Structures are given as C-alpha cells and as structure tokens.
Amino acid sequence: MPRVKTGTVRRKGHKKVFKLAKGFRMTRNRLFKVANEAVIHAGQYAYNGRKERKQQMRVTWITRINAALSELVDSPKYSRFIKALKDKNITLDRKIISELAVKLPEAFKAVAQFSFKK
C-alpha cells in the first residue's frame, strides 16, 4: 500500500483550530497542540458561562422585584409575593414582573395589590 500523508485533511483541521484560537496570546495561537487545548478549554468556559448568565439574570430579577416590593406600603416579602401570585393563578414569570417593576411601577403595584386581595 502506498503511504498517505493526510496533507489536505490535516491542514484543514489545523486551520479550523487556528481560526478559533485567533486572538489568543503567545503559542496558544501558533502551535497546534497548545492551540487545540486552549480552544477546548475556551469552549468549556463559554458553555459554563452561558449557564451562569442565566442564573445571574434570575438573581437580578429577584433583586429588582424585592426592591420594588420594599417601596410599597405594607409590602410583603418576595417569597410571600410569589406564593400569592401562584395562589391567584397569575402566570407572570420573574423576568416580566421585574420589567414591570422597573419600567411600569404602577402596573407592578396593581399586580401586587391584586395578588394580596382576599
């Protein structure tokens, strides 16, 4: 059998990794082995970062809601507010409620008062 050097296939794979490693410092953008490791780790960090961003946004929404509740007279705590919404079958998620609290405080106040009516 003749010898096969995988020239074009290997070059294509290396170019793909180097393209992803563009902007990395020192040998991380020049040497294939090092660049490949850096790209793999960067992908892991990016994946974890996407998950963490969602967690941080939820924390931000909860903080905004709690701050808006504290400004109301006879304000309940956040947990009691969420429980009251669930009991009244109000299906607004935390993102929407926090948007109401920031951009439309009157609407937020109306939702809060409605959720605590007997």
TrEMBL record:
Gene3D superfamilies: 6.10.160.10, Ribosomal protein L20. It comes from the Bacteria. It holds the Pfam family Ribosomal_L20. InterPro entries: Ribosomal_bL20 (IPR005813), Ribosomal_protein_bL20_C (IPR035566). GO terms for biological process: ribosomal large subunit assembly; translation. PANTHER family: 39S RIBOSOMAL PROTEIN L20. Belongs to the bacterial ribosomal protein bL20 family. Binds directly to 23S ribosomal RNA and is necessary for the in vitro assembly process of the 50S ribosomal subunit. It is not involved in the protein synthesizing functions of that subunit. This is Large ribosomal subunit protein bL20.
